[in-house]
């Protein structure tokens, strides 16, 4: 019943490895096999704590992977399962704040292949905050059994995000997922996900408000997620509005991918 | 007398005096609180009169506030001293400062209502009376919200004034016309409860079908045909809306009106397309339903009941099984697929 | 010149008002529709001849039918009760045996190290024994219950039970999932409180947390069974027919569960009226049946839950052990019993019973050993196997009759949660207020019920 990552070495403590090379976050709806995948990579060695000020548990673990004689230490964070990141429940707030303000190198979005439609809502929202994404299409065995056929090439093509079909419970393709992730992190594959298309009337409003925000806060000129910020303002997101008012949007964080 | 007795008496005496002082403070505070509440109520009343272009005399105030004359005079004096109101030919009028203050109170009231609507399970009819109490207190409720809100659950704009509206009763002779509901009066409670039960809500559209002597027949944008009596109609406020999309929507709805139903009325395995969900599904519940796919154009299908009957019932939507209770399903409008 | 931020906000507000403040809803709706469009030629749903898929539908239909629902509920309930009453007992006695060995071992080491006798007694009789007894009685039910619960949760059976039970709980303003947390409460109330996490709606979750205590847990069953057999059976029948006896005893047990259930429902109803300032919603996702992942189950149930709760239990057991030790060293027990006696008498109890319950705050399991210890004046908790000797002690030293038995049974069902549960409630609600209410409310309910029953009913029966 060994279901742990065979090629990766689980790190029980980090003292001997004084640096984490890459940080990866796992995001997905509840019950899509997020924790299963997480356990596959980290085994039983997990660090459980609480997110600051929240009763939501923060789960993180470490593992090491050897690729062509080079060893990489990964830190992996299991974010709470959410349906969207409009920041209402504590779980949503934790996930949203981490994706928006935290530092990470890649987000693995875990999708339930038996239920793609429902899962994509979250994916669409994540695309608005970050480009550093990869899809893990979990439960493909179950989908197949249920007669759900997914054209993965087309799917990849349409959403412009690398997609790896996996089976988290057996570890099928889980290593491939990390190899592919590494390629994205190192810039060998460029990812530019398909963005949600606003209805035309909303688009006009967004553009207008965007212009106004730029006049107030010109440093946002080249900020890739200005549209998301504007949308959040229109929806009345207190955190984003306060950050704009104080001009403390973390502009450089998202450009880290391009520079490293 | 013994020293001990003297000491005891002094101690008891001082405790008594301290108690009396404390009691006086408590009573003074209660009095202050009451005066403050009445002050704010009077400002709100004056503001309402101003909006309706009515003049207010001192006796109007007395009638409204239901206070003893000496106390009312005291409050009016305080307001005069604070320059919130002024006398103008026997009439009491708000100064610009007074207007500002009144607007602030109303804004707070609406914010509290919105908060209670989105974040608690207090029934919608009770929200107004709770907000009426809370608006005077040093409440922190609005600060707890995650988002800036701008409209309250009755359709009123929280900060500033709504667009002009008129009562549904004032529609005299123009059937077949489409209106948008702008505001719903929350008092008296019984009539408000009736409107809520009919699921008429702000931002919904209605089409007048027929004007009768004692009632009005309307069609809602969710495909419901309703008969509204005149007393109820007087509490629903509307504005004209000329929008091609809305007209088209009503045309479509009229075409398929026989297929329109609510989710709870569907039979097992009867597929349907969602038209929309009620305004009165609120807060967390609404967000969850939307996220799970209970949005316009989604296909939904009742799969099976539970052991004890059809409440709750399991529905299939977006290839997921979701159980909903009857009251929830009643507020989800669907169009049966044929 | 810089733009004024408030002006932007004002403009935004105007747009929001124009669009009825529903940008968020509109966007979600639009996203759903766009995704549907994109996925139409990517995902293809075909009819399969797969046996399991077909079977799933029938299983679902069966489980939600009257017969199937009842079978599902009863089998889950009986497994839960079997584990509580029998299964856990084996491991418990095994653990006690090990702890006894360790005790001897520790005593020897301390003796070799020439530690002072009083300190040895403090460490072994006070700290160690308190911890050992709590771990031995609490670990087994949790170690079986949590994995079982997670297993059934993963399998997808639990949401179906919750669905079937929802109508009952809806009528008192609670959530169907509360049925599951109550069943877990049979095993351990602290575990039951942790399991309320499956209720997502804040109001209903709080209700489930505050009422879980009314389900008699593993620690209370032995007492209830003992009293039923020793006092209620002889009070009702003179016949020595063992079959009749066990039927009456079982009926007494069932009625105590029904009393607990009744209080749960009534208190839930009251709480649902009082907790209006919490948001409430019912959306229950019914997951497809899935093969459970054993590694994950063991991981989450052992590490995440069992050790979590157990560490708290140990944490609370140490001061209690020390408390008992001090009482015994200073010979305080008789004074305390005399002190509590008049109070206890008001409710048909006595001072010893009250003190036993205070001592047994860390775990309900030690109520009987504590009673034996206090009645006989022994220095240690007494684990007596023989029912007849227990009966002797209770009737001779304690003057018990069947009325005392009824009062103790009622008190056992209704009294405050054990300290581990209290600590767990604090962890789960993160609020001192609710923790205090969860502790005080059952006590008030217990004493007022007992007062009424004792003075109005029992006193008039001869």
Summarize this, please?
The complex is a heterotrimer of chains A (260), B (338) and C (462). Chain A is α/β, with parallel strands linked by helices.
How would you characterize this protein structure?
- The complex is a heterotrimer of chains A (260), B (338) and C (462).
- With 260 residues, chain A is α/β, with parallel strands linked by helices.
- Chain A has helices at 34-42, 90-101, 116-129, 140-145, 152-159, 174-185, 200-216, 226-235, 238-245, 256-259; strands spanning 8-10, 22-28, 47-50, 57-67, 70-78, 106-112, 133-138, 148-150, 163-165.
- Chain A folds into two domains: 8-185, P-loop containing nucleotide triphosphate hydrolases (Rossmann fold), CATH 3.40.50; 200-259, no CATH class.
- Chain A contains ten helices and nine strands.
- In chain A, strands 1, 2, 3, 4, 5, 6, 7 and 9 form an eight-stranded mixed β-sheet that branches.
- In chain A, strand 6, helix 3 and strand 7 form a beta-alpha-beta unit.
- In chain A, helix 7 (200-216) packs across helix 8 (226-235).
- Mean pLDDT of chain A is 82; it is low at 254-260.
- Chain B is built from ten helices and 14 strands.
- Chain B has helices at residues 3-51, 58-65, 69-81, 96-119, 124-134, 189-197, 230-233, 244-255, 283-292, 326-330, and strands at 85-88, 91-94, 166-167, 178-184, 205-211, 215-220, 225-229, 236-240, 260-262, 272-277, 299-306, 309-317, 320-324, 332-336.
- Chain B has a six-stranded antiparallel β-sheet. A six-stranded antiparallel β-sheet of chain B has the order 9-14-10-11-12-13. In chain B, strands 1-2 form a two-stranded antiparallel sheet.
- In chain B, a hairpin with a 2-residue loop joins strand 11 (299-306) and strand 12 (309-317).
- The model of chain B has no long low-confidence stretch (mean pLDDT 86).
- By secondary structure, chain C is mainly α.
- Classes of the chains: A alpha/beta (260), B alpha+beta (338), C mainly alpha (462).
Secondary structure: elements and pairs:
The complex is a heterotrimer of chains A (260), B (338) and C (462).
Chain A: E1 8-10, E2 22-28, H1 34-42, E3 47-50, E4 57-67, E5 70-78, H2 90-101, E6 106-112, H3 116-129, E7 133-138, H4 140-145, E8 148-150, H5 152-159, E9 163-165, H6 174-185, H7 200-216, H8 226-235, H9 238-245, H10 256-259
Parallel strand pairs in A: 2-5, 2-6, 6-7, 7-9
Antiparallel strand pairs in A: 1-4, 3-4, 4-5
Helix pairs in contact in A: 7-8
Chain B: H1 3-51, H2 58-65, H3 69-81, E1 85-88, E2 91-94, H4 96-119, H5 124-134, E3 166-167, E4 178-184, H6 189-197, E5 205-211, E6 215-220, E7 225-229, H7 230-233, E8 236-240, H8 244-255, E9 260-262, E10 272-277, H9 283-292, E11 299-306, E12 309-317, E13 320-324, H10 326-330, E14 332-336
Antiparallel strand pairs in B: 1-2, 3-8, 4-5, 4-8, 5-6, 6-7, 9-14, 10-11, 10-14, 11-12, 12-13
Chain C: H1 5-18, H2 23-39, E1 43-45, H3 51-63, H4 66-112, H5 117-155, H6 157-170, H7 178-187, H8 189-195, H9 202-211, H10 221-236, H11 242-274, E2 284-286, H12 294-329, H13 333-346, H14 351-359, H15 367-376, H16 387-396, H17 402-414, H18 419-429, H19 432-457
Helix pairs in contact in C: 4-5, 4-7, 5-12, 7-8, 8-18, 9-11, 10-11, 10-17, 11-17, 12-18, 13-14, 14-15, 17-19, 18-19
